[in-house]
Amino acid sequence: KGNLNWPVQGRVTGKFGKARNPDTGVVIENVGIDIRATSGTPVQSVLDGVVSTVTYIRGHGNVIIIDHGGGFSTVYAQIDNITVYENEYIQMGNGIASVASPDNGSTARLHFEVWGNQKKLNPEKWLSSR
């Protein structure tokens, strides 16, 4: 905990957890964090592991899930130019994709999640402080 390298350099613009929209009062839950980064910025694996899933999810775009063993996985979304394949072993720091260009004119960002034993964990508690 607190020692993982960041998947991209950038500022966290979307925090983990539930937040109330001040205008609508609607409560939404962010199961990861959103890190602002320039489109095309390389995305790196935060830990050694095996690519378990490469897919597309509406609302998240392209998604990579890496299984790190011991019940832990990381999820990388809003990405393009994927350079890894399912069942491929990759090492910490390896490039896996790049930050996608948003199609709705919003700011480019990487959506990043940490899962432990089927539970959504706050990624900021796992990433090294800067």
N-to-C terminal Cα separation, in Å?
Answer: 14 Å
Shape: globular
Q: Total number of β-strand segments?
A: 12
Radius of gyration: 14 Å
Helix and strand run? EEEEEEEEEEEE
Biggest sheet descriptor: 10 strands, antiparallel
| Secondary structure: helix percent | under 10%
* Percent of residues in beta strands: over 45%
Structure class: mainly beta
Number of discrete helical segments: 0
Low-confidence blocks of residues: none
Overall pLDDT score: 92
What does this protein look like?
- This protein has strands at residues 12-14, 17-20, 27-30, 33-36, 42-44, 49-57, 61-69, 72-80, 89-90, 95-99, 109-116, 119-121.
- The protein is mostly beta strands and 130 residues long.
- The strands form two sheets. Strands 1, 4, 5, 6, 7, 8, 9, 10, 11 and 12 form a ten-stranded antiparallel sheet that branches.
- β6 and β7 form a beta hairpin.
- The radius of gyration is 14 Å and the shape is globular.
